[in-house]
Amino acid sequence: MELRHLRTFRTVATLMSFNKASKVLNYAQSSISVQIQALERDLDNRLFDRRGKKLFLTDAGRELLVYCDRLLALADEARERVTAQGVRQGTLNVRVPESLGLMLLPGLLGRFRQSFPDIRLALHACSAESLPRDLFEGVYDLAFLLAESVDAAVLQVERLGCMEIVPVAAPGHTLTDTGRIPLAMLAAQPLLLGTSDCSYRKSFERLLAGEGLTPASLTEVAGMELLKRLVAEGAGYTMLPWPMAREEMQAGRMVVVDCPEARLEVAVLMITHRDKWHCAVLRAFMDMARQEATRIGLL
């Protein structure tokens, strides 16, 4: 069995599509088919069945998939230990909510650059969607989320702390001039939310829905700095992590809305795929993230 055939098999088995696998792996679809056929000949067994347009793993395919993850993880580990390429070069892909990144990364990046000057670090906007698959396929090596929990058995989730999410608006806004307000009054005002911090956004939307409420109007904003600017100019209210809200208050740009029902507490989660090998660079980055989370005082 060739490792590249096993990688191709794992990708097809994960996506259940030869066409999608060809796009992810940048192979022609015919090459995907040839590799799977070669693996089936090696094993003298069929790995996939087709039923109409749908693809299914056979019993042999399901069993191979369990061993495939272990074999490829071991191969990655061996390659790193023998060649040390994981330390000298490459790219580390990290998915992080913009609001958390603004707090966690400034102190972390300088130390990381000193230790690994030749590693290219790629930071991507947060999304909980497709996270297990993206980590499994290596689209991302590491992810952070601000969420209550992540429900996926294939993920390795570490809690770095927790953070309070609070409603904020501009000084002089209706919401900040009337003292303590009920959740229904908050929901009746224009709401601005970032598209890049989807995890705690969903928590807030569930909170409103649980009380039978929906925002009177919702504006989605791509970019935390633009979002804060719009709120500071009175365009509506938003939800911010407490450390960021405190910074805006100290600058006189925002006020925390006195609505205890709207406050959320979410966990700061650091996530990898359970079956993926953690190279030396990734392990070092995770250690630095733990230290930085402690330094900035996550609860």
From TrEMBL:
<protein>
    <submittedName>
        <fullName>Transcriptional regulator, LysR family</fullName>
    </submittedName>
</protein>
<comment type="similarity">
    <text>Belongs to the LysR transcriptional regulatory family.</text>
</comment>
<dbReference type="Pfam" id="PF03466">
    <property type="entry name" value="LysR_substrate"/>
</dbReference>
<feature type="domain" description="HTH lysR-type">
    <location>
        <begin position="1"/>
        <end position="58"/>
    </location>
</feature>
<dbReference type="InterPro" id="IPR036388">
    <property type="entry name" value="WH-like_DNA-bd_sf"/>
</dbReference>
<dbReference type="InterPro" id="IPR005119">
    <property type="entry name" value="LysR_subst-bd"/>
</dbReference>
<dbReference type="GO" id="GO:0000976">
    <property type="term" value="F:transcription cis-regulatory region binding"/>
</dbReference>
<keyword id="KW-0805">Transcription regulation</keyword>
<dbReference type="Pfam" id="PF00126">
    <property type="entry name" value="HTH_1"/>
</dbReference>
<dbReference type="GO" id="GO:0003700">
    <property type="term" value="F:DNA-binding transcription factor activity"/>
</dbReference>
<keyword id="KW-0804">Transcription</keyword>
<keyword id="KW-0238">DNA-binding</keyword>
<dbReference type="InterPro" id="IPR000847">
    <property type="entry name" value="LysR_HTH_N"/>
</dbReference>
<dbReference type="InterPro" id="IPR036390">
    <property type="entry name" value="WH_DNA-bd_sf"/>
</dbReference>
